[in-house]
Amino acid sequence: MRFKMASQLIKFIVLAIAVHYCSASAHRTPRQAGPGSIFTVGNGEQCLGSDRTTGGVCLSRNQCNTQGGKAIGFCGVFATCCSLNACDVRTNTKVAMFINPPLNKESSGLECSYNVEINNNNVCQMRIDFETFNLAPPTTVDPVENVTQRPGYTCRNDIFQITNLQANSEFFPALCGDNNGQHLYVRVNASTNSRSIRLNFKIADRNTQPNLPQATWKIKVTQLECFNTLGKYRDGILEAITSSLPSTPLTSTADRDEYLIAPPGCLQYYPDRSGAFESFNYNRGAGPYIANLAYATCFKRTPDVCGIKFTSASFEMAYRSDENLYLDTDCQINPVTQGAAQSEDYLFIPEAETADGLRGSKFCGGSASNQIIASTPPGPLYVHFNSDNLVTDDIPEAGYRFNYNVLNNCYLRVSNF
Predict the structure, then answer these.
(1) What is the 3-class SS of the chain, one letter each residue?
(2) For the chain, where do the domains classified as CATH 2.60.120.290 start and end?
(3) pLDDT interval class at 27 (50, 70, 90)
(4) Which positions ≥6 away from 161 have C-beta within 8 Å?
(5) Closest CA to 374 of 408, 397, 329, 398
(6) Which of 54, 203, 225, 398 is the Cys-Cys partner for 254 at CB 3.0 to 4.6 Å?
(7) What is the CATH number of domain 85-226?
C-alpha cells in the first residue's frame, strides 16, 4: 500500500512539474527565450518570416486571421509567423507586434488603430517598445516679424497617441518624429475594469504635404504580470513541490515579468544597470523635443545600489537668460514673480552634483552639456523632464541624451566617478 501511494505521489509530482514547465515555456519572454521548439503552437513570441528579415508574431493560423494579420512563414510545426501590418487590429496575446501597412501617397492620410486587451487578470502593465518609429516631426507656427516667441513644437501632422480605454485618467503624450528605440509604460488593472489600451496613428496626407517623410513603425507591446495573492495561493502546491529545484524553467510568468515591472509613476523604465536614454524626438541630436511634456524616466534600484551616474552625450535645452548658470530657479520661475512668459523647460535630477562640484536639481540651457553627474537620492532613481509651450527664436531645443550607470559606492567624490 505504501509503495502504491509513493508511486502515485511521484507520478503527481512529475505531472505537476511538466504542466508548470509547459505553462512557463508558453509565456516565456524574449529576454529568457531559449531556442524555439518545433512544437510551438502560437505563444505570441517574436518570429521571422520566410525571408528571414520580416518580423512577426507567432500565432495559430486562426488567431492570425482573426486579428487581420498575414502569414509570412512558420514557427514550429503548428503555428504561423503572423505579420500584423493591417489597421483596426484587436489582440490579447502576451506579445503583440504591429507594423505599418504599406503607405504611399494614395494611402496616406489614414487613421490606424490597434486594440490590445489584457491577456489575463494578472496583467498590470503594458510595455510599448518602438522598434521602429518614424513620423513627421513636431512643428511650430511660422515666425512673425518683431515677435521672438512662438508656441512650442507639437505634433500637428502625424500623431501617435495611446488611450487607456476603460481608465482614461492617465495622460499619455502625443508623440511624433524619430523615436526609434524608445519605449513607454501603460498601467492596466482588471479589478478597476482597465482591461485594454488603444494605440492610434493619425497620418497626414502626403498628397497635400509631399515634403513630409514617409511614416513607418514597428511597435511591440508586451503584457507584464504582477504578483497577486490568489495566484500565489493557487501556485502554492507547485512552489512547495519545486522549491528545491532550479527556478529558471519553473518560475511563474509574474516571476519572469518582475524584472520589467516599472515603479508607479514612471512613463519610462530602464531595469539594466547601465545603458542610455534620450528625449523624445532626439533625432540624433537634431531635435526638437516635444512641447507640453511632463514625465519621469526611472531606473532600477536594487539593495546594493546607492545612486546613479549620468554621462552627458548631448544636452541642449531652452533657457531664460544668458546671465545665469541654467540651474534650479534659473530654469523654473516662481509664479508670484513670473511676469512675462519665459522658458521653463528643464530636466530634474534629484540630489545631483557634477564632476565640477556644481550642485542643483533642475538643469536647462547647456548646464548638463559635457558633464558627468552623480545623483544620490535617498529614494527612487529617476529623472523628470518638463517642457512648456514656448519657443524663443535663436534658442535651440534639441533635447538630450545620457549614458547611465548605477552606483554601489557613493562615498567617493563625484570627480572620481
Answers:
(1) CHHHHHHHHHHHHHHHHHHHHHHHHHCCCCCCCCCCCCCCCCCCCEEECCCCCCEEEEECHHHHHHCCCEEEEEECCCEEEEECCCCCEEECCCEEEEECCCCCCCCCCCEEEEEEECCCCCEEEEEEEEEEEECCCCECCCCCCCCCEECCCECCCCEEEEEECCCCCCCCCCECCECCCCEEEEECEHHHCECEEEEEEECCCCCCCCCCCCCEEEEEEEEEECCCHHHHHHCHHHHHHHCCCCCCCCCCHHHHHHHHCCCCCCCEEECCCEEEEECCCCHHHCCCCCCCCEEEEEECCCCCCCEEEEEEEEEECCCCCCCCCCEHHHCCCCHHHCCCCCCCCEEEEEEEEECCCCEEEEECCCCCCCCEEEECCCCCEEEEEECCCCEECCCCCCEEEEEEEEECCCCCCHHHC
(2) 85-226, 274-416
(3) very low
(4) 172, 174, 175, 200, 202
(5) 408
(6) 225
(7) 2.60.120.290
| pTM of the full structure | 0.79
How many angstroms from the chain centroid is the CA of residue 3?
55
Structure confidence at residue 251 as a pLDDT band (50, 70, 90)? low
C-alpha cell read off for 120: 489575463
Which of 29-43, 195-209, 266-280, 401-415 ranks highest by mean pLDDT? Answer: 266-280
Position 232 scores a pLDDT of 43
Which whole number is the average pLDDT over 130-142?
95
- Over pLDDT 90: what percentage of the chain? 48
Was domain 274-416 assigned CATH 2.120.10.30?
no
Per residue in 289-320, pLDDT (tens digit) is 999 999 999 999 999 999 999 999 999 999 98
Of the pLDDT bands very low, low, confident and very high (cuts 50, 70, 90), residue 133 is very high
* Strands of the 70-75 sheet, one edge to the other: 46-48, 55-59, 79-83, 70-75
Record the cell numbers describing residue 86, joined without a space.
493591417
Q: Which of 99-108, 110-119, 234-243 has the highest mean pLDDT?
A: 110-119
Residue 64 has pLDDT above 60, yes or no: yes
